[in-house]
Design goal:
299 residues; globular; 4-stranded antiparallel β-sheet; 22% strand; 17 strands; alpha+beta
Amino acid sequence: MSPITLVAGRRLSVSNLDKVLYPATGFTKGEVLHYYAVVADVLLPHLRDRPVSFLRYPDGPGGQVFFTKNVPPGTPDWVTTAEVPRSEGPARMVVLDGLAALMWAANLVTEFHTPQWVLAEPAEADRIVFDLDPGAPASVVECCAVALWLRERLRADGIEAYAKTSGAKGLHLLAGVRGASSAEVSAYAKRLALEAERAMPDLVLHRMTRSLRGGKVFVDWSQNAGRKTTATPYTLRARDEPTVSAPVTWREVEECRDPGRLVLRADDMADRLRLLGDLLAPLLDRTTHGAVPGAAASE
C-alpha cells in the first residue's frame, strides 16, 4: 500500500519513493518530489491559470515517455480542471493551482508544459517564446549568441526578454506580450527569426531543415501557436540527469564559453533561488508586457 501524506490539507498517496529515475546520478522519485516542494513557490505562479500538458516518464527517461493532455484517469476530485478550446473540439485539462495539486502531479513523474496564454483569455497570447535548438557541433554557447541578438531586437520593439535553459541542449527566450493573438505573435516571432537568419546566416536557421542544422541554431518560433506548449520554468526534464529548465541571468548568457556552465540540475536550484530569486518574475506582471508590433489588437 502506498504511503499517505498530508499536503496543504489534502491527503496524498505517494509511491515508489526509493525508485531510481535518473540512473546516471541515482536521483530517486523521492528526490523528485522533494525538488518540487523546494521550488513550488516560484513554479506555481508560472503554472497558474494555464492548462498543463504532462510529458510523463514513470520509469525514468530510459523507459516509456508519453504526452498526456487530457485529465489523467484517477485524478482526485479536488484537483482543478478546466475546459480548454482545441481545434478538434473542447477538452478538459488539469490546472495546477496549489501545492497539493503540484505534488500530486509530481508523483506521476512528469515534465510540465504550458501554452503562451491563460485560461481567462485563450484568444490572446501573454508570452512570446523562442526555443533555440543547436545542431551539433553547435551548443548552448552558440544559442547564447543568438539569444543576445534577439534580446536587443525585441528591446527595440519595447519588449523585454528573459532567458532560461531548456533543460536539454539549448536555451529558451521568453518575454511578456499583450494585445495580440497567438497567430499574430507567431507571425511576429517568425519575422524576427528570419531577421536573425539574415543577420547571422552562418549561425541561424528559422526552419527545421535537418540537412542544414549542422553547426547552426534553429530558432523555433512555432511554439507560439495556440495549440503548442513549452517546458514550464523550473520543470525537471526527462534527460539522463535531473536537469531543470532554469532561469539564467543575462550575465551568465553573455559569459557562457563552456556548455557545461548552463547545465543546471535539481540540486543547484535551492541555492540559486536563495541568491537570485525568480529571475522570470517580471513575466508575471502583465502591466510591464510589451505590445506586439503590427498586431491588430494593439493598435
